[in-house]
Amino acid sequence: MKLPTSSLFATIGLFLTAVPALQADDVQIARDVVISKAVPSDVFIFVAGRHNPEQEFLEKAWGEVFEELQKSGVIGDIFTLMTGSMSAEDAAEFEKTTDRIKELADGVEWDKLASREFVFAGRMGVPMPEFMFIGRGPQEAVEKNHKGLRAILSEIEDQSEGAVTVADREEQGAKVSTLRPGNAPFSINIASRKDVMVIAMGDGLLKDALGLLEGKSEAKSLVSTSRFSGAFRKLPAAEDEWVFFDVANLLKGVRGIFEAMRPPQGEAKGEGEEDPSKIFVALLDDLSILDYVAATSRTEGMRVFTDAISQMTPDAKSKGLYKVVVPKERIEKFDRFIPKEAVTFSVSRGVNWNALYAWIKDFMRTKVPHGEEHLVQWSELQTQIGFDLQKDVLDWLSGPIVTIETAPSSPMGGPELVVLLEVSDEKLAADRVKTGLDRLGQLLGAAMGGMGGEVPGIVSSPVEVAGRKGFYEVKFQIPALMMIGAQFSPIWGVADGHLIVGTGKKAVGRCLDTAAGKHDSIVKSARFDKEALVPKSSETNLVSISFTDETRTAEELQGMLAGFGMMGMFTAFLPPQEDGVIKILGALPGLAVKLQPVAKKMNFFQSSSAYETFDGTAWRAYQVSNYRVPPKEKEEDKDFDDWGEDEKPKKEKPKNKTGVTEPL
Question: Percentage helix, strand, coil, to 5, in the chain?
Answer without folding.
Answer: 45, 25, 35
